[in-house]
Amino acid sequence: MAVIALAAGCSNSGGKDSENKASAGGSGGKAASTPRLKIAMVTHSGEGDTFWDIVQSGAKQAASKDNVDFLYSNDKEAGGQAQLVQAAIDKKVDGIVVTLAKPDAMKDVLAKAEQAGIPVVTINSGAEFSKQFGALAHFGQGESVAGEAVGEELNNRGLKKA
Asked: Residue 73 — φ and ψ, nearest 5°?
């Protein structure tokens, strides 16, 4: 979902240069082709994390369906994740989807993305920092809200050890 939202945001904010945009001229009934966008997703996942494997798989499927060149990278260390975001900026991607598990480590590099005119969407973690760091949107829920909901459900089920 975040990949698609970012792709839509890129197309609305310019994304590619106007020379790459398809013209809608003619009445031949054919759908206009769209430029191929390059979107990077950078997460704080460690290798073999099933949750992020599923997220990556879904994002890849959506990207291939919507003419998006999808680049996924991950590093469980905050400094490494920031370097991967910088690499995406250096590749001049059209948009970045990123997690903010360690917001302080990501602040400066997200400012660089904004300065480069690259739209950013945050997912999963760091909701409270997303707008402050210049992101267009955040997809996810607050960690404390999720934790409280799980705690309430465990309590409702009478579970004392989880």
From this structure: -145, 160
C-alpha–C-alpha distance, residues 51 and 124, integer Å: 11
Whether 87 and 118 have beta carbons less than 8 Å apart is answered as no
- Mean pLDDT score of the chain: 83
Amino acid at 29: G
Question: CA neighbours within 13 Å on the CB side: how many for 7?
Answer: 22
**Nearest alpha-carbon partner for 43 in 53, 28, 33:** 53
Please check whether residue 1 lies inside any domain of the structure. Answer: no
Q: How far apart are CA 58 and CA 8, in angstroms?
A: 17
* pTM of the predicted model as reported, rounded to 2 decimal places: 0.74
Percentage helix, strand, coil for the chain under 3-state DSSP, each rounded to 5? 45, 15, 40
CATH of the domain at 122: 3.40.50.2300
Query: How sure is the predictor about 106, in pLDDT bands with cuts at 50, 70 and 90?
Result: very high
Number of domains comprising the chain = 1
The residue range of the domain holding 140 is 36-156
Is 18 within the bounds of a domain? no
